[in-house]
Design brief:
Oligomer: heterodimer
Strand order of the largest sheet of chain A: 1-2
Number of helices of chain B: 13
Number of strands of chain A: 2
Bound molecules: adenosine-5'-triphosphate, magnesium ion
Structural class of chain A: mainly alpha
Largest sheet of chain A: 2 strands, antiparallel
Distance between the termini of chain A: 50 Å
Strand content of chain B: 15-25%
Strand order of the largest sheet of chain B: 6-7-8-3-9-10
Shape of chain B: globular
Largest interface: A-B, 24 and 26 residues
Shape of chain A: globular
Helix content of chain B: 40-55%
Strand content of chain A: under 5%
Order of helices and strands of chain A: HHHHHEEHHHHHH
CATH superfamily of the largest domain in chain B: P-loop containing nucleotide triphosphate hydrolases
Structural class of chain B: alpha/beta
Number of helices of chain A: 11
Helix content of chain A: 55-70%
Chain lengths: 269, 308
């Protein structure tokens, strides 16, 4: 179970969880395109509606999803403030030296905030509903066409999945070593910066040694199983199902809608 | 130091979807001077329990108890947890954990993977220097004496290994060095989490002999976590059986293994002697022994002698 605790996978069973990771990745990309194509309020509202539907279907608690937004709160407030203060426009509410607050500026910032929030919520929804392992599988599968130009897709995917697999193991190991040294009276919390850095040597040395040992063992284990043969089969095959078809149709409808709104309603500032 | 533990519960990743209840109302007293065994199936909470004893894991729930807020709910609330090691009250926020850890030594599973220093001497001295009182750094001679004593206790020769890199030693030697690094401060209680894991039978036997030596001279109380029932039967004064975070049984090996069926039903092994006693019982021969090999052999021989 530990392999999934890394990242933010939220383990429930839902419509979204069961979707093919490839489609979810494509959906995220398509959604980002839609967000940036939408240049009026209706378009963004449509995007938000689709996303709210997806969140509801995913059964991930809303609080969890919003927590992802909290991470970029500072960025959002900062960009919004800059935009409000520097954006010029016709309907001026307030002005001082080079700063001005205009209706256009406020709307522009509002769109920007909405886009950022949608972007972050959508991408965190992907990581909440997809284990790192199936995410890697999905990326590998999507990158397959690059094999034609001899891009080592498979090696890349392997590196990614090994890294993902090892991060939680090493985090565990760090915990264990840290506890062991604490039991011998090591103190990681007090003292000046130099002392604190020095205090990490008793963790770092065993950790590095163990990482190398594990890498060695993994290499041997892969050799022993004849890794490196030409064709490999997958343990978990990715399957396209009706859920993915629905998702795809929804995405197509969203992008079409946004483009139509762009043409017929136009920019709203 | 007497260890008193009442209603100890612990949940990993509390409040997240990955929450795992590891301890569920453990009540247990370990007297000073015991050679105490902790046994149980894998995942039964043994390691979690022993890590509480020197404050590496703390009681998250106990902290709330100090705020007298939810008086009304007290009927549904879990009963008050108690965890005392000697005079240290581990449910209190003000416990001096450094002082506690100085007196309660802990050897983790595969302790050889925590070695880090350039030389064996420095590694063994690590705890000594950490636990020294402020402004009272041990002199070089004191360090040397303590290190060589500790190494001698684990069966290593100071002159031979002290200046070597710990990474150049064999696996068994590394483990001894790691144990030396814990006992060097002469803790009153020594806890070992599966100290014999991964050793060959002879290595195991040597290690147990070593622990008995430490139990007499260095540490008043020894607590070992083990999977090996023979080890428990041979060595422990008492043992507690963990099962799904609870204590299923706690008694002397003699009493414990006389309930062999119960242990088997918990999915645990029993010592070879207990298996033989069971097999003999099926054939109508009752043997009343304390399940050490020596006692078993004596009782069997005595019986045979009696018949002849
Ligand atoms: N760091 C952790 N994070 C989450 N859960 C954990 C962690 N460590 C242990 N657990 C869980 O707590 C339970 C008890 O674990 P513990 O390590 O105490 O078992 P154990 O009796 O020592 O087993 P073993 O004989 O395999 O060492 C297990 O179900 C385990 O999955
Ligand atoms: Mg354990």
């Amino acid at each position: 179970m530990k392999e999934v605790t890394f990242g933010q996978y939220y383990p429930v069973d839902s419509f979204i969880h069961r979707m093919d990771p490839r489609l979810k990745i494509v959906f995220l990309i398509g959604f980002i395109v839609a967000i940036f194509l939408a240049d009026n309020f209706y378009g963004l509202a449509a995007c938000a509606g689709v996303l709210i539907l997806a969140v509801a279907l995913s059964r991930v608690p809303v609080g969890k999803v919003l927590r992802a937004v909290r991470g970029i709160l500072f960025l959002v407030i900062f960009t919004a403030a800059i935009n409000i203060l520097f954006h010029t426009g016709e309907h001026v509410y307030w002005q001082w030296s080079i700063f001005s607050v205009t209706r256009e500026g406020i709307l522009f910032s509002a769109y920007l905030i909405l886009r950022l929030v949608l972007l972050v919520v959508c991408s965190s929804l992907l990581t909440y509903t997809t284990t790192p392992v199936s995410l890697t599988d999905g990326i590998e599968s999507l990158l397959t066409p690059l094999k034609w130009i001899r891009f080592p897709v498979h090696a890349l995917a392997l590196i990614m999945s090994i890294a993902l697999r090892f991060i939680p193991i090493l985090m565990d190991e760090t915990d264990r070593i840290k506890n062991a040294q604490k039991a011998r009276g090591a103190d990681f919390e007090s003292g000046g910066p130099i002392k604190r850095i020095k205090a990490f040597i008793p963790i770092l040395v065993p950790l590095l040694l163990s990482a190398f040992r594990r890498a060695d063992e993994l290499g041997d284990a892969m050799d022993a199983r004849c890794y490196g043969g030409k064709t490999r089969t997958k343990y978990k095959k990715l399957h396209f199902t009706w859920r993915d078809l629905l998702g795809f149709l929804l995405l197509a409808a969203l992008i079409t809608g946004v483009v139509l709104l762009r043409i017929y309603v136009g920019e709203m500032l | 130091m007497r260890i008193v533990c009442e209603n100890l519960s612990y949940t990993y990743n509390e409040g997240s979807p990955f929450a795992a209840k590891a301890l569920d109302g453990v009540t247990l007293t370990i007297e000073e001077g015991e050679f105490f065994g902790v046994i149980g199936h894998t995942g039964s909470g043994k390691s979690t329990f022993v890590q509480h004893l020197n404050g590496l894991l703390r009681l998250p729930t106990s902290l709330k108890k100090y705020k007298p807020k939810k008086r009304k709910k007290s009927e549904n609330e879990a009963p008050m947890s108690v965890l005392r090691v000697g005079e240290f009250d581990l449910t209190s926020k003000n416990t001096d954990f450094r002082a506690l850890r100085k007196r309660v030594g802990m050897v983790f599973q595969y302790p050889e993977y925590q070695l880090f220093a350039e030389t064996v001497e420095k590694d063994v001295a690590f705890g000594l220097e950490n636990f020294a009182e402020k402004g009272q750094k041990p002199t070089e001679e004191e360090v040397k004496r303590a290190v060589s004593d500790a190494l001698a206790t684990v069966g290593l020769d100071y002159n031979e290994v002290a200046s070597k890199s710990p990474f150049d030693l064999s696996g068994g030697q590394k483990r001894r060095v790691a144990i030396a690094g814990v006992i060097v401060t002469k803790p009153e209680v020594l806890i070992l989490d599966e100290p014999a894991a991964g050793l060959d039978p002879l290595g195991k036997q040597e290690l147990m002999e070593l622990l008995h030596k430490i139990h007499g001279d260095w540490c008043k109380t020894v607590v070992i976590v083990s999977h090996d029932m023979d080890e428990i039967a041979e060595n422990c004064t008492r043992a507690a059986v963990f099962s799904e975070g609870k204590i299923a049984m706690c008694a002397s090996p003699k009493e414990l293994f006389s309930h062999a069926e119960e242990l088997l039903s918990l999915g645990l092994d029993i010592p070879l002697t207990a298996k033989l006693v069971l097999a003999l019982k099926e054939r109508g021969i009752e043997i009343d022994c304390d399940y050490t090999v020596e006692d078993f052999v004596q009782k069997v021989l005595a019986r045979k002698g009696g018949r002849a």
